Amino acid sequence: MGSESRESFLPLDPVSFTNESKAVVDFIADYYENIEKYPVQSTVEPGYLSARLPESAPYCPESLEDILKDVNDCIVPGLTHWQSPNFFAYFQANASTAGFLGEMLCSGFNVVGFNWISSPAATELESIVVDWMGKLLKLPSSFLFAGTGGGVLHGSTCEAAVCVLAAARDKALKELGGWEHITKLAVYASDQTHFTFQKAAKLVGIPPSNFRLIKTTFSTGFAMSPETVRSAVEDDIKSGLVPLFLCATIGTTPTGAVDPIAELGKVAMEFKAWLHIDAAYAGSACICPELRHHLDGVELSNSISMNPHKWFLTNMDCCCLWIKEPHLLTDSLSSDPEYLKNNASKTKSVVDYKDWQIALSRRFRALKLWIVIRRHGLANLMYHIRSDIAMAKHFEALVRKDGRFEIVMPRKFSLVCFRLKPTAAAEAEDDGRELNSKLVEAINSSGRAFMSHAVAGGVYVIRCAIGSTLTQQHHVDALWKLVQEKAQSLLTNHSIK
Amino acid sequence: MGSESRESFLPLDPVSFTNESKAVVDFIADYYENIEKYPVQSTVEPGYLSARLPESAPYCPESLEDILKDVNDCIVPGLTHWQSPNFFAYFQANASTAGFLGEMLCSGFNVVGFNWISSPAATELESIVVDWMGKLLKLPSSFLFAGTGGGVLHGSTCEAAVCVLAAARDKALKELGGWEHITKLAVYASDQTHFTFQKAAKLVGIPPSNFRLIKTTFSTGFAMSPETVRSAVEDDIKSGLVPLFLCATIGTTPTGAVDPIAELGKVAMEFKAWLHIDAAYAGSACICPELRHHLDGVELSNSISMNPHKWFLTNMDCCCLWIKEPHLLTDSLSSDPEYLKNNASKTKSVVDYKDWQIALSRRFRALKLWIVIRRHGLANLMYHIRSDIAMAKHFEALVRKDGRFEIVMPRKFSLVCFRLKPTAAAEAEDDGRELNSKLVEAINSSGRAFMSHAVAGGVYVIRCAIGSTLTQQHHVDALWKLVQEKAQSLLTNHSIK
């Protein structure tokens, strides 16, 4: 029937499971040991891998040794090393041993907890751990299972956005009296809001022309102005649209800006729009009492999400979503096919998380977040956030000391937005865009660090996002030295021309 | 600043990473060794876990030993053991050592390959491995990167469904001339199609009243009739609707039925509707030449998806989606925010998978599928499918030999649908529903096996889904003995009453 008999083909035999898994643990530990030796951004050319791998699958089994050799020779060179201490791009995805252990248990048990009965522990631990996380953030009890709300773990902010947008949409369509009103629904966010909300709104069928990008400026530090929102909403109402959804952000992707959620909450309430708070990046920081004020006003929102897989030492993927009225989520997303019917669900005494998310299937992500929190404890989690912020402050101070540079936006968390000041006439023409983009390219192509950029208020800024687990202050010092060295070389070339 | 200094707080230190990870490997190996000792379906009561765990997160770090003790004492009893050889419910989620190793590498590297530059290997390996998989299934080159199409790894069929529905929707709205036509779009599937397609259609804004559930019957083995689809489409066109999307299934969830895709493809083409093939469960089986005919006609479809995380020894989560015209997917889902702009993307010579899926962030799932395929080889993967089917045939034969039972639907893959024949007057009244549901309950509450049920054509059937990695023939024999024992006891009690 095949090349091996059932007796010799044992794909989950505990002995070989143990041996092979431990070999891979050693492989990964070696990778971490050596991670600083690799160029942070991969230097491969498009198409590099197809030249190195066969065009089709092998007929016979291959050894783990051969596979790991290929991982080492073919895959590692094509990685951009997110776990490198010299990774300062985008927002970090900071792994930890605890997060890894949680992923191992999740994958090892490999249960599919779509409803309570299919693995009660998967459902109940998730409900407990989202409450733990909510309490760490001092969310009002209206968002907790211990109160009148509840939470769920998704894979991404976009998934959370799709689900709350669908919940808000279906509530509105019910009130408006029919699906034909879908083209009247309008969604509001700032021009700094993560593009995932535009994508999510379009996904759930809101016409893209009904998505309002509220303009932000330097004057508010790129925070969304409640007055501008109000005026956009009023205009839309005059044109016959219905304000459905407003998204506020704590720590925007381009510059780490914070929208004033208390004031935005009042506007949203006045117009009966759903207020969602996207705290994907900076939510983690709000476990520290001195930073919690950024969430003031959260009680006025309908839902809030944040990503432990960014800054909370939780390996990919993990997004917490809390919602005040979970029944709005389940009204929109629930289904009850015969083949999933069971007594526990019938009693309505249990949570069936399939009705809180897009998919039926789901991984046991709660284990990971639970282990991350327990293995570190609030004390070390706060320490971790604070030391990243301290390093960012340190970098900011280094930038400020060098007159050729400027801090473009005030730093709030561990993201520093800076640039070389445009001085020469050629630079003033494009407000330093080319100069600074060349600087980023020079830094990244050195392989010694990886950074990314943004544009806010028309200004091109270099983003230094500190938060990789392995980053220590000497890495930040080395980064600054590298930035200065590359800037010097650019400016010299420039003045020679 | 915290309870520990940066020097002593090292959440990704290679030495403790190694030690703690190996302890968890041993824990999971022990779990597999002992898995048959646990009741397959958890016996806990709703709310069991909140009584055992603290209400809020700890302030100080806890030891791995304490955490693993709690996993053992509090979590394991609340698991329904999907990896048990006595798990015969739903469809299996069959884990393997190879799949686990792939998950470890994915989590260890923890790269976020949303676009090519953010980790070229993550993108390129994914493109290569979906082509490998497509070739194993003998998909036409119109679905492969090596041809004119392409593929992507999603987390679930529902995600794939949302994405292809959005692509089809946006193409249609463009042709129809505006978003207001969204309420005219109609979607077709059979009453056996997984509910996830109804959910996905509603998610993307198709009015639920425009979702047509085509009735199936015993006469076609619960396959969708092309004539019935045609007649539904024609009726809708008469009412001013636009046929958007038809979903055909290879191996339906209730009974494993197979829709006639070649004939359905002709209907879809005639009315310019998008044909999607959901081969979530049975797609894996089509790597065997003797089963490949179920995919005959696939060339007429626009997209096809299947889940290696069901029957292909690939740990959760992994869903392959192939599409003939990838530009329709990216037209609908792409975005180009300034903070992700880069030279590689600008040249359009690379794939940016963020534009092929819902979320921005994504895990490096390709490693897992790649290692599963290489570590087993096509030979053993076919052996694995065939031995599961052989065990299902064996179970089917056992059922046929016992005159009290009947096979309700012809078996096509490794799912056997059977029931106790209703004989007594009381049983005939509900066509044996109560009797058979009591039998399932008796089996499941014994803890010795876990099965689920479905209803097709009004008939309640017990589903015996064979495919857990650890299942061997003696487990199937024991299951049948258990079924007979519980049936005997039910029938005796019944006749006493």
From TrEMBL, chains A, B:
What does the UniProt keyword field contain? Decarboxylase, Lyase, Pyridoxal phosphate
Cofactor(s) required, per the database record: pyridoxal 5'-phosphate
Family named by the database record: Belongs to the group II decarboxylase family.
Annotated GO biological process? amino acid metabolic process; carboxylic acid metabolic process
Q: What InterPro entries does the entry give? A: Aromatic_deC, PyrdxlP-dep_de-COase, PyrdxlP-dep_Trfase, PyrdxlP-dep_Trfase_major, PyrdxlP-dep_Trfase_small, Pyridoxal-P_BS
Organism whose genome encodes this protein: Hibiscus syriacus
Q: Which Pfam families match?
A: Pyridoxal_deC
Which segments cross the bilayer? none
The name this protein carries in UniProt is Tyrosine/DOPA decarboxylase 2
Q: Does the keyword RNA-binding apply?
A: no
Modified residue N6-(pyridoxal phosphate)lysine is at which positions?
310
Write out the GO MF terms.
carboxy-lyase activity; pyridoxal phosphate binding
> Which GO CC terms are listed, alphabetically?
cytoplasm
